[in-house]
Design a protein that fits this description.
This protein has 306 residues and is α/β, with parallel strands linked by helices. It has two domains: 35 residues, no CATH class; 224 residues, 2-enoyl-CoA Hydratase, Chain A, domain 1, CATH 3.90.226. The protein is built from ten helices and nine strands. Helix 5 packs parallel to helix 6. The protein is globular, with a radius of gyration of 26 Å.
Protein backbone atom coordinates (compact mmCIF):
# COMPACT_ATOMS: atom_id res chain seq x y z
CA UNK A 1 0.00 0.00 0.00
CA UNK A 2 2.85 2.35 0.83
CA UNK A 3 4.37 1.69 -2.61
CA UNK A 4 1.09 2.59 -4.34
CA UNK A 5 0.53 5.66 -2.17
CA UNK A 6 4.06 7.02 -2.20
CA UNK A 7 5.16 6.19 -5.76
CA UNK A 8 2.39 5.27 -8.18
CA UNK A 9 -0.32 7.66 -7.05
CA UNK A 10 1.83 10.86 -7.23
CA UNK A 11 2.89 9.95 -10.79
CA UNK A 12 -0.72 9.45 -11.86
CA UNK A 13 -1.76 12.73 -10.23
CA UNK A 14 1.07 14.55 -11.99
CA UNK A 15 -0.15 13.28 -15.36
CA UNK A 16 -3.81 14.16 -14.89
CA UNK A 17 -3.38 17.41 -12.91
CA UNK A 18 -4.07 20.49 -15.08
CA UNK A 19 -0.94 22.48 -15.83
CA UNK A 20 -0.64 25.98 -14.47
CA UNK A 21 -0.63 28.48 -17.32
CA UNK A 22 0.97 31.89 -16.64
CA UNK A 23 -1.53 34.72 -16.76
CA UNK A 24 0.68 36.99 -18.89
CA UNK A 25 0.82 34.78 -21.98
CA UNK A 26 -2.12 36.57 -23.59
CA UNK A 27 -2.93 40.27 -23.67
CA UNK A 28 -6.27 41.87 -24.45
CA UNK A 29 -6.26 44.92 -26.70
CA UNK A 30 -8.02 47.72 -24.85
CA UNK A 31 -9.24 49.17 -28.15
CA UNK A 32 -10.69 46.22 -30.11
CA UNK A 33 -10.78 43.50 -27.43
CA UNK A 34 -8.78 40.90 -29.37
CA UNK A 35 -6.53 38.52 -27.43
CA UNK A 36 -2.91 38.63 -28.61
CA UNK A 37 -0.19 36.12 -27.78
CA UNK A 38 2.60 37.83 -25.85
CA UNK A 39 5.36 36.86 -28.28
CA UNK A 40 3.40 38.19 -31.25
CA UNK A 41 2.70 41.40 -29.36
CA UNK A 42 6.38 41.91 -28.46
CA UNK A 43 7.46 41.14 -32.03
CA UNK A 44 5.09 43.86 -33.24
CA UNK A 45 6.47 46.41 -30.72
CA UNK A 46 3.29 46.16 -28.60
CA UNK A 47 1.06 47.36 -31.42
CA UNK A 48 -2.23 45.48 -31.92
CA UNK A 49 -2.13 43.48 -35.15
CA UNK A 50 -5.90 43.79 -35.58
CA UNK A 51 -6.64 47.50 -35.08
CA UNK A 52 -3.20 49.16 -34.92
CA UNK A 53 -3.70 50.37 -31.35
CA UNK A 54 -0.38 51.44 -29.81
CA UNK A 55 -0.04 50.04 -26.30
CA UNK A 56 2.41 51.56 -23.86
CA UNK A 57 5.96 50.37 -24.46
CA UNK A 58 8.36 49.78 -21.53
CA UNK A 59 11.08 52.41 -21.47
CA UNK A 60 13.99 49.99 -21.89
CA UNK A 61 12.32 48.31 -24.87
CA UNK A 62 11.90 51.74 -26.43
CA UNK A 63 15.56 52.60 -26.00
CA UNK A 64 16.60 49.27 -27.51
CA UNK A 65 14.28 49.97 -30.43
CA UNK A 66 15.83 53.38 -31.16
CA UNK A 67 19.57 52.93 -30.62
CA UNK A 68 21.76 51.15 -33.18
CA UNK A 69 21.88 47.46 -32.29
CA UNK A 70 19.91 48.22 -29.12
CA UNK A 71 23.17 49.32 -27.46
CA UNK A 72 23.41 52.45 -25.32
CA UNK A 73 25.09 53.78 -22.20
CA UNK A 74 23.18 55.20 -19.27
CA UNK A 75 24.48 58.04 -17.15
CA UNK A 76 24.22 58.26 -13.39
CA UNK A 77 21.85 61.01 -12.37
CA UNK A 78 22.53 63.43 -9.51
CA UNK A 79 21.32 62.45 -6.06
CA UNK A 80 18.20 64.28 -4.91
CA UNK A 81 16.30 64.51 -1.59
CA UNK A 82 14.12 61.44 -1.14
CA UNK A 83 11.21 63.20 0.63
CA UNK A 84 11.91 66.95 0.83
CA UNK A 85 8.48 67.92 2.22
CA UNK A 86 7.89 64.91 4.49
CA UNK A 87 4.66 64.42 2.58
CA UNK A 88 1.99 61.97 3.60
CA UNK A 89 -1.51 61.26 2.31
CA UNK A 90 -2.90 57.74 2.70
CA UNK A 91 0.70 56.59 2.69
CA UNK A 92 4.11 58.12 3.28
CA UNK A 93 5.75 59.49 0.15
CA UNK A 94 9.00 57.78 1.13
CA UNK A 95 7.19 54.43 1.23
CA UNK A 96 5.62 55.08 -2.18
CA UNK A 97 9.07 55.78 -3.58
CA UNK A 98 10.46 52.55 -2.14
CA UNK A 99 7.57 50.56 -3.61
CA UNK A 100 8.08 52.13 -7.05
CA UNK A 101 11.83 51.50 -6.90
CA UNK A 102 11.28 47.87 -5.95
CA UNK A 103 8.69 47.42 -8.70
CA UNK A 104 10.72 48.97 -11.53
CA UNK A 105 14.31 48.53 -10.40
CA UNK A 106 14.88 52.25 -11.11
CA UNK A 107 15.65 55.15 -8.81
CA UNK A 108 13.11 57.48 -10.43
CA UNK A 109 10.89 58.04 -13.46
CA UNK A 110 13.54 58.97 -16.04
CA UNK A 111 16.44 57.31 -17.84
CA UNK A 112 19.14 59.33 -19.62
CA UNK A 113 21.18 57.41 -22.18
CA UNK A 114 23.52 58.17 -25.05
CA UNK A 115 24.69 56.18 -28.05
CA UNK A 116 24.34 56.07 -31.82
CA UNK A 117 21.22 56.25 -33.92
CA UNK A 118 21.76 55.76 -37.62
CA UNK A 119 25.44 56.41 -36.99
CA UNK A 120 24.74 59.75 -35.29
CA UNK A 121 25.60 60.49 -31.68
CA UNK A 122 22.39 61.23 -29.76
CA UNK A 123 21.30 61.76 -26.17
CA UNK A 124 17.87 60.47 -25.13
CA UNK A 125 15.94 61.26 -21.95
CA UNK A 126 13.05 58.78 -21.68
CA UNK A 127 10.31 58.69 -19.04
CA UNK A 128 9.27 55.51 -17.27
CA UNK A 129 5.47 55.62 -16.87
CA UNK A 130 5.56 52.54 -14.62
CA UNK A 131 7.33 54.64 -11.98
CA UNK A 132 4.54 56.60 -10.29
CA UNK A 133 2.94 57.45 -13.61
CA UNK A 134 6.09 59.10 -14.93
CA UNK A 135 5.42 62.07 -12.65
CA UNK A 136 7.99 64.87 -12.66
CA UNK A 137 9.73 65.65 -9.42
CA UNK A 138 13.17 67.01 -8.58
CA UNK A 139 14.93 63.87 -9.84
CA UNK A 140 13.22 64.05 -13.23
CA UNK A 141 14.12 67.73 -13.53
CA UNK A 142 17.73 66.88 -12.74
CA UNK A 143 17.58 64.17 -15.41
CA UNK A 144 16.44 66.60 -18.12
CA UNK A 145 19.11 69.12 -17.08
CA UNK A 146 21.79 66.40 -17.13
CA UNK A 147 20.63 65.21 -20.57
CA UNK A 148 20.80 68.76 -21.95
CA UNK A 149 24.28 69.32 -20.52
CA UNK A 150 25.47 66.00 -21.96
CA UNK A 151 24.07 66.89 -25.39
CA UNK A 152 25.92 70.21 -25.35
CA UNK A 153 29.12 68.52 -24.17
CA UNK A 154 28.95 65.84 -26.87
CA UNK A 155 27.68 68.25 -29.55
CA UNK A 156 24.82 65.79 -30.07
CA UNK A 157 21.06 66.13 -30.67
CA UNK A 158 18.75 65.77 -27.69
CA UNK A 159 15.64 63.59 -27.89
CA UNK A 160 13.14 63.63 -25.03
CA UNK A 161 10.43 60.96 -24.79
CA UNK A 162 7.85 62.03 -22.20
CA UNK A 163 5.21 59.67 -20.81
CA UNK A 164 3.87 61.40 -17.76
CA UNK A 165 0.82 62.37 -15.78
CA UNK A 166 2.44 65.70 -14.91
CA UNK A 167 4.18 67.20 -11.90
CA UNK A 168 4.54 65.06 -8.78
CA UNK A 169 2.18 66.49 -6.19
CA UNK A 170 4.09 64.94 -3.26
CA UNK A 171 6.92 67.42 -3.92
CA UNK A 172 4.66 70.46 -4.17
CA UNK A 173 6.23 73.70 -5.43
CA UNK A 174 9.57 71.93 -5.85
CA UNK A 175 8.08 69.82 -8.63
CA UNK A 176 6.54 72.87 -10.32
CA UNK A 177 9.95 74.58 -10.31
CA UNK A 178 11.18 71.83 -12.64
CA UNK A 179 9.05 73.32 -15.41
CA UNK A 180 11.24 76.40 -15.46
CA UNK A 181 14.49 74.49 -14.94
CA UNK A 182 13.87 72.09 -17.80
CA UNK A 183 12.83 74.94 -20.12
CA UNK A 184 16.11 76.74 -19.44
CA UNK A 185 18.06 73.51 -20.00
CA UNK A 186 16.40 72.97 -23.38
CA UNK A 187 17.21 76.55 -24.42
CA UNK A 188 20.90 75.86 -23.83
CA UNK A 189 20.72 73.02 -26.35
CA UNK A 190 19.06 75.31 -28.88
CA UNK A 191 21.59 78.09 -28.28
CA UNK A 192 24.32 75.63 -29.22
CA UNK A 193 22.52 75.06 -32.54
CA UNK A 194 21.74 71.42 -31.75
CA UNK A 195 18.46 69.72 -32.68
CA UNK A 196 15.93 69.20 -29.92
CA UNK A 197 13.29 66.62 -30.83
CA UNK A 198 10.35 65.54 -28.67
CA UNK A 199 8.69 62.17 -29.18
CA UNK A 200 5.26 62.45 -27.57
CA UNK A 201 3.91 59.16 -26.26
CA UNK A 202 0.82 58.12 -24.33
CA UNK A 203 0.17 59.97 -22.09
CA UNK A 204 1.90 63.38 -22.04
CA UNK A 205 -0.04 65.68 -19.72
CA UNK A 206 0.17 68.23 -16.93
CA UNK A 207 3.30 70.21 -16.16
CA UNK A 208 5.38 68.11 -18.54
CA UNK A 209 3.31 69.13 -21.56
CA UNK A 210 3.24 72.72 -20.26
CA UNK A 211 7.04 72.98 -20.35
CA UNK A 212 9.80 71.16 -22.23
CA UNK A 213 7.52 68.63 -23.96
CA UNK A 214 6.07 71.31 -26.26
CA UNK A 215 9.31 73.13 -27.09
CA UNK A 216 10.82 70.74 -29.61
CA UNK A 217 12.20 71.88 -32.94
CA UNK A 218 10.25 68.90 -34.27
CA UNK A 219 7.25 67.42 -32.44
CA UNK A 220 6.59 63.77 -33.29
CA UNK A 221 3.74 61.77 -31.74
CA UNK A 222 2.72 58.13 -31.69
CA UNK A 223 -0.77 57.32 -33.03
CA UNK A 224 -3.56 57.68 -30.51
CA UNK A 225 -1.42 59.27 -27.79
CA UNK A 226 -3.19 61.46 -25.24
CA UNK A 227 -1.44 64.84 -25.22
CA UNK A 228 -2.67 67.83 -23.27
CA UNK A 229 -2.56 69.77 -20.02
CA UNK A 230 -5.76 69.18 -18.05
CA UNK A 231 -7.91 66.10 -18.48
CA UNK A 232 -10.85 66.13 -20.86
CA UNK A 233 -13.42 65.69 -18.06
CA UNK A 234 -11.94 68.63 -16.15
CA UNK A 235 -12.11 70.83 -19.25
CA UNK A 236 -15.70 69.81 -20.00
CA UNK A 237 -16.83 70.53 -16.45
CA UNK A 238 -15.06 73.92 -16.55
CA UNK A 239 -16.32 75.23 -19.89
CA UNK A 240 -19.60 73.25 -19.68
CA UNK A 241 -19.35 72.16 -23.29
CA UNK A 242 -18.91 68.83 -25.02
CA UNK A 243 -15.41 68.46 -26.45
CA UNK A 244 -14.85 67.32 -30.06
CA UNK A 245 -14.34 63.63 -30.71
CA UNK A 246 -10.68 62.65 -30.43
CA UNK A 247 -9.84 65.80 -28.47
CA UNK A 248 -6.26 65.73 -27.08
CA UNK A 249 -5.35 62.76 -29.28
CA UNK A 250 -2.23 62.92 -31.45
CA UNK A 251 -4.22 63.04 -34.69
CA UNK A 252 -6.36 65.94 -33.43
CA UNK A 253 -3.25 67.90 -32.45
CA UNK A 254 -1.69 67.22 -35.85
CA UNK A 255 -4.77 68.65 -37.60
CA UNK A 256 -4.58 71.76 -35.40
CA UNK A 257 -0.86 72.40 -35.78
CA UNK A 258 0.33 71.33 -32.32
CA UNK A 259 2.52 68.46 -33.55
CA UNK A 260 4.46 68.08 -36.79
CA UNK A 261 4.09 64.35 -37.44
CA UNK A 262 2.18 61.32 -36.23
CA UNK A 263 4.39 58.32 -36.92
CA UNK A 264 3.61 54.60 -36.35
CA UNK A 265 5.99 52.93 -33.93
CA UNK A 266 7.58 50.68 -36.54
CA UNK A 267 8.64 53.77 -38.52
CA UNK A 268 9.82 55.89 -35.60
CA UNK A 269 13.50 55.00 -35.72
CA UNK A 270 13.82 55.59 -39.47
CA UNK A 271 11.89 58.86 -39.18
CA UNK A 272 14.05 60.14 -36.32
CA UNK A 273 17.25 59.26 -38.17
CA UNK A 274 16.04 61.08 -41.28
CA UNK A 275 14.94 64.16 -39.30
CA UNK A 276 18.21 64.37 -37.37
CA UNK A 277 20.23 63.91 -40.55
CA UNK A 278 18.38 66.85 -42.15
CA UNK A 279 18.70 69.07 -39.08
CA UNK A 280 22.41 68.35 -38.67
CA UNK A 281 23.25 68.98 -42.32
CA UNK A 282 24.69 72.47 -42.01
CA UNK A 283 25.99 72.57 -45.60
CA UNK A 284 23.87 74.06 -48.40
CA UNK A 285 21.96 71.58 -50.53
CA UNK A 286 23.71 72.76 -53.73
CA UNK A 287 26.42 75.03 -54.99
CA UNK A 288 25.73 78.69 -54.28
CA UNK A 289 26.18 80.80 -57.42
CA UNK A 290 26.57 84.60 -57.41
CA UNK A 291 23.77 86.62 -58.93
CA UNK A 292 24.58 87.94 -62.43
CA UNK A 293 25.07 91.67 -62.75
CA UNK A 294 22.41 93.53 -64.68
CA UNK A 295 23.71 94.62 -68.09
CA UNK A 296 21.43 97.66 -68.35
CA UNK A 297 22.42 99.11 -64.99
CA UNK A 298 24.17 102.52 -65.46
CA UNK A 299 27.83 102.76 -64.57
CA UNK A 300 28.38 104.57 -61.35
CA UNK A 301 30.47 107.72 -61.43
CA UNK A 302 33.07 107.36 -58.72
CA UNK A 303 33.30 111.19 -58.41
CA UNK A 304 29.59 111.57 -57.62
CA UNK A 305 28.90 111.57 -53.92
CA UNK A 306 25.93 109.51 -52.79
Amino acid sequence: MNWLTNSVLPKIQKLVRPREVPENLWHKCSNCGHMIFHRDLDANLRVCQHCGHHMRLPVKKRLEMLFDGGEYQRIELPKTPADPLRFRDQKRYGDRMKDAQAKTGEQDAIIVAHGRMGGLNVVIAAFNFEFMGGSMGIAVGEGIVAAAELAVLQDAPLIVIPASGGARMQEGILSLMQMARTTVAVEKVKEKGLPYVVLLTDPTTGGVSASFAMLGDIQIAEPGSVIGFAGARVIESTIREKLPEGFQRAEYLLDHGMVDMVVPRKDLRATLVRVLDLLLNRKPAGEVLPLPEKADSPARDENVQP
